[in-house]
Amino acid sequence: QVQLVESGGGLVQPGGSLRLSCAASGSIFSIMAWYRQAPGKQRELVAGITSDGTTNYAASVKGRFTISRDIAKNTVYLQMSSLKPDDTAVYYCNAEIRRGWPYPPLDYWGQGTQVTVSS
Fold first, then answer.
1. Of 14, 43, 68, 77, most Cβ neighbours within 10 A?
2. 3-state DSSP assignment of residue 21
3. Is 34 exposed, middle or buried (0-12, 13-18, 19+ CB in 10 A)?
4. Contacts of 109 (CB under 8 A, 6+ apart)
5. Is the Cα torsion angle 114, 95, 67, 74 positive or negative in sign?
6. Is the Cβ–Cβ distance between 7 and 93 less than 8 Å?
7. CA nearest 44: which of 90, 97, 111, 98?
């Protein structure tokens, strides 16, 4: 059974830092990513990382956030720095298993962790 357990959210002042962790179990994943959803907004991709370490970032967080992955621990991290009030959202861990054509990928989500950036 696949499980994604997030931790590390909380309240931080503007300009501060937080590190989110997502511990996965039950499978090895092709891609792991962080999404976020602010009140009244759609869920958006923050950052993703493949099994070979290739990363991509939303333009709004590039240069401030860093995604990394510990394959041995099956854990993905999101180091967030220079946080802004606009970064306030529920952050969700996502993990994908790609099975190859013609099978669609399998998609899994964590329960979410709140990040609030406020003075």
1. 77
2. strand
3. buried
4. 4, 92, 93, 94
5. positive
6. no
7. 90
pLDDT, average across residues 22-35: 91
> pLDDT class for 114, splitting at 50, 70, 90?
very high
Closest C-alpha among 48, 37, 27, 26 to residue 94 = 48
Q: Between vectors from CA 112 to CA 111 and to CA 114, what angle results, nearest 5°?
A: 145
pLDDT tens per residue, range 57-72: 999 999 999 999 998 8
Q: Which two tokens stand for residue 104?
A: 């669609």
Q: Is the pLDDT of residue 101 over 90?
A: no
Rounded to an integer, what distance in angstroms lies between the CA atom of residue 61 and that of residue 67?
11
CA distance 94 to 31: 8
| First-to-final CA distance of the chain | 40
